[in-house]
Amino acid sequence: MPPMGAELGWSRGETSGALSLAILLSGVCAAPVGRWLDARGPRLLMSVGSVAATVLMVAWSRVSSLTELYVVWALIGVTMSAVLYEPAFAVVTAWFERDRTRALTAVTLMAGFASTIFMPIESWLVEAQGWRSALVTLAIFLGISTIVPHALLLRRRPEDLGLHLDGDAHGPDHRAAGGCARSVPVGVALREPAFRWLAVAFGISSMVSIAVHVHLVAYLQDVGYDLMFAATATGLVGAMQVVGRIILGLVGDRAPRRVAAAIVLGILPVSLVIALAVPGPVGVFAFICLFGAARGALTLVRPAFVADLYGRDRYATIAGALAAFVTAGTALAPISAGMAYDALGTYAPLFWAYAALSAVAAGVVLLAKRSDAEPVMPSTPA
């Protein structure tokens, strides 16, 4: 943002608004993308999405007006829904059941290091080439590293290749008792209370998580820390996200999914209370450890929970509908938190409110349980 804004005379609000628009549109597209994935699989969608992402990064490098920037980022938002976490999770869910949490952990661990790896590279490229040429270089790398693998390697589900879930040598009849996934019709899933409780719980927790993370540097400065300390502490959130995912990957399948979800969501309000009530660097770093771990584990809990409740045959459609609710709150979180701060002049009341809301989310997720009387169908290969 800084070099682009400096060249073209745009404020941080004007440039970051393009990202909010992209996030919002990615949520709007989540449900139709989910239906596509269930019906046709990821190969064409993610291959075309990778081509579009590459082209749009080059287009971004050529913008000269705010209108052009917002049009490009609106299209990037649509593309995000086709290539980021949600479709990747749909692929994992289609190929894994017993080892699903470990497989999701592997995907998110790689993605968790994205900013750690690419932010320094991007900074170096901007200094060496300028922001426009840096975007072109990154676009070339993006195209080479994603288009061909998606086109050649992705398949809808293991049954299409004569294989079985989790790489088992035998079919579902030979799996452990209770191991076969259930499949719930989409209409049934979206009408039942469990889905609504999931939407409320994960919508609130995602909103709080994003709002606090975006404003964390400003909050730490507001309570008296210098910029270097605030930036370093905030940067540690990413490392703790990886730790949280590793821990959940190791123990996540040993507890009932609702209990694991409630524990993860419950860590979020505890971390905020520590940040507000425990003074000094000790409180800050205790908050960072818990907050980062909760953010990282939250990424894994949602797809695993949805798959456990509704099976894998219509997973992408149901998860896409859930993502639409969650992403709406995510998109509004940064700007609403900023407006609240402008009105109050401090973050403390806002963070206390976030602690209370996230505690409610931890309790609500325990209600996301399907009745034994609700109709389910055995999972069958397409």
Condensed summary:
The protein is mainly α and 382 residues long.
What features would you highlight for this structure?
382 residues, mainly alpha, Growth Hormone, Chain: A, two-stranded antiparallel sheet, globular, disordered C terminus
Write up what this structure looks like.
The chain is mainly alpha-helical and 382 residues long. The protein folds into 2 domains: 2-167, Growth Hormone, Chain: A (Up-down Bundle); 181-369, MFS general substrate transporter like domains (Growth Hormone, Chain: A, Up-down Bundle), CATH 1.20.1250. The protein contains 16 helices and 2 strands. It has a two-stranded antiparallel sheet. Helix 2 (12-40) runs antiparallel to helix 15 (315-344), helix 3 (43-60) runs antiparallel to helix 4 and helix 3 (43-60) runs antiparallel to helix 8 (131-153). It is globular, with a radius of gyration of 21 Å. The N and C termini lie far apart (46 Å). The model is unreliable at 173-181 and 373-382 (pLDDT under 50).
According to DSSP, the number of beta strands is 2
- Which CATH first-tier class of the largest domain would you pick? Mainly Alpha
CATH architectural name of the largest domain: Up-down Bundle
Shape: globular
SSE arrangement, N to C: HHHHHHHHEHHHHHHHHE
Please name the fourth-level CATH homologous superfamily of the largest domain: MFS general substrate transporter like domains
How much helicity do the residues have? over 70%
Mean pLDDT: 83
Multimer state: single chain
Please state the CA-atom Rg, rounded to the nearest Å.
21 Å
CATH topology of the largest domain: Growth Hormone, Chain: A
Largest sheet: 2 strands, antiparallel
Distance between the termini: 46 Å
Strand content: under 5%
Q: What structural class do the secondary elements suggest?
A: mainly alpha
Number of H/I helices: 16
